[in-house]
Amino acid sequence: MDLYSLMREFADSWALLALVLLFCGIVFWAFRPGSRPLHDDAANVPFRNDSRPARQDMTDVRAQEALK
């Protein structure tokens, strides 16, 4: 048996099984009980400064430092 056939047989059996188990584990980890608050917090990151915009003077200081 040549190397190609051996690797092909491994990929068709054990590697496929390992990847399916890895995929199922990742899906279970993402949807595990108790993770909803973490996902909600991550989803709301872009909207954290909606109630008040960022201070203008800080952005001016950063812009001036970038020009130096």
UniProtKB/TrEMBL annotation:
<dbReference type="InterPro" id="IPR008621">
    <property type="entry name" value="Cbb3-typ_cyt_oxidase_comp"/>
</dbReference>
<keyword id="KW-1133">Transmembrane helix</keyword>
<feature type="region of interest" description="Disordered">
    <location>
        <begin position="46"/>
        <end position="68"/>
    </location>
</feature>
<protein>
    <submittedName>
        <fullName>Cytochrome c oxidase cbb3-type subunit 4</fullName>
    </submittedName>
</protein>
<keyword id="KW-0812">Transmembrane</keyword>
<dbReference type="Pfam" id="PF05545">
    <property type="entry name" value="FixQ"/>
</dbReference>
<feature type="compositionally biased region" description="Basic and acidic residues">
    <location>
        <begin position="49"/>
        <end position="68"/>
    </location>
</feature>
<feature type="transmembrane region" description="Helical">
    <location>
        <begin position="13"/>
        <end position="31"/>
    </location>
</feature>
<keyword id="KW-0472">Membrane</keyword>
